[in-house]
Amino acid sequence: MADTIIGNNIAIEGEITGSDSLTIFGVVRGRIHVKESVVISPSARVEADVESASIEVAGQVHGNISAADKVELKAGGKLVGDVKAPRILIADGASFKGNINMQG
Amino acid sequence: MTRTRIGPGQVITGDVRAGEDLSIHGRVRGQIEAEGLVIIEAGAVIEAGVRAREVIVRGVVVGDVHAVDLLEVTANGQVAGSVQTKRLKLHAGGRIAGVVATGTPVQGFHFSHRRGSATGSTLRTGAMAATPRASRPTTPPSPRARSSSFATAPRAVASPLSSRATPAPTPLNPAADIRASDSWTMDSPSDERPPLDPRRGDDDPTILDRLPAFPSIDDTRTPAPAGSDLPERTPPVTEEHVEVTSEPPGEVVETDAASEHEAHEPS
Fold first, then answer.
1. Residue B69 above 90 pLDDT?
2. pLDDT band with cut points at 50, 70 and 90 for residue B114
3. Which of A42, A67, A99, B39 is buried deepest, with most CB atoms within 10 A?
4. Helix locations, A1-104, DSSP H
């Protein structure tokens, strides 16, 4: 497992950049720029712009999301911000407020 | 329970606050504060101050380290910065470049917004609110800025120094803090040292237990007591140090006797 896990009782304020995949259970404020994938789990709270290849949102996100491949907004997930990705999935029960850009 | 881990390919520029244990393989620039254990793994580079209950350094830390309970620097660990800790375990090969103060009470960190009780308003700690997100610097904060964020944290550790003649450490100036505690450690005789922890056992390998009063010139002229307490002068137990202490004490006494001759011959 060569990925990064931000646990429940962690708060990061600042910028997370890198190549690994990132799983967030805690709080992140600032900016996230990760090459591989970002998973925002139900307990997570993210106030940041998120940029990655694949982004999965099951928690709360306040910020713009940009994915090279795919954005998946899961049931229970809450997203306020713009989404830019070639493929976008929004599950039943998800909450979303913002613009969608699928032009690439 | 997930364990927080910063992967080797990850860079965090900013502050990390943790109410749980943390292991870092990547890079962090900013400030790390944790209630529990922080492990800086081999290959990790931390350009940040670290404050935690327990810190294990296997990689590189450039910044001050404050450990409430224990700081362990392993054989390949490096710390470039001041160190303040109750107990220090430095393995042979580990490096510390900076002022070291052991046995001092260190203010801990309290993680104030646990999940479950967190709402939008309680997410901000004092330090976070003081630094708006838009103006977050991408460079590490200055020592002054870091110390001011410490000042807003609750003081969880009661200072046994406060009842003594030496002034209690002021939270606003970490450098002065270390100097003050350093002076009583060095200057006061060993029997006047304040009690560190009543729960601590005799087998506890802390530096202060093994650190005798600094030898004066008279000590070299009285070989018998010097020889008897020589094994206690060795630093905390590591594999290499065990070898040193296993040398026959007779040799050491001989060198003491030789030095005694040297001292007497000119007169």
1. yes
2. low
3. A67
4. none
Mutant choice from A1, A3, A5, A13 vs B, greatest count of B C-beta within 10 A:
A13
Which residue is it, tokens 């006797």? B257
Contact B115/A at CB under 8 A = yes
Q: Exposed, middle or buried by CB within 10 Å (0-12, 13-18, 19+), for B43?
A: middle
Q: Are A42 and A59 in contact (CB under 8 A)?
A: yes
Residues from chain A that touch B4, judged by Cβ atoms under 8 A, are 5-7, 10, 26
Residue keyed to tokens 């220090």:
B88
Q: What is the CA radius of gyration of chain B?
A: 22
Are B193 and B103 a contacting pair, CB within 8 Å?
A: yes
Strands B10-18 and A95-97: unpaired
**Interstrand relation of A65-73 and A87-90 (parallel, antiparallel or unpaired):** parallel
Side chain identity at residue A92, one-letter code: D
Mean pLDDT, all residues of chain B: 64
State the virtual CA torsion across B129, B133, B134, B139 in degrees, nearest 10: 110
Burial zone of B247 (CB within 10 Å; 0-12 exposed, 13-18 middle, 19+ buried): exposed
pLDDT the model gives residue A104:
58
CB B113 within 8 A of CB A45: no
Two structure tokens written together for B187 = 């200057």
Name chain A contacts of B9, Cβ cutoff 8 Å.
2, 18-20
Pick from B244, B243, B247, B239: nearest CA to B93: B239
**How far is Cα A31 from Cα A28, in angstroms, rounded to an integer?**
8
Adjacent-strand bridge partners of A50 = A32, A65
Q: Are B174 and B99 in contact (CB under 8 A)?
A: no
Contact residues on chain B for A3, CB-CB shorter than 8 A: 5, 7
The residue behind tokens 């004066």 is B216
**Cα-Cα end-to-end distance for chain B:** 72
Compute the distance between CA of residue B94 and CA of residue B57 in angstroms, rounded to an integer. Answer: 9
Residue B120 has pLDDT above 80, yes or no: no
Q: What is the ipTM of this complex?
A: 0.91
Nearest to B80 by CA among B33, B39, B47: B47
How many CB atoms within 10 Å of residue A42? 14
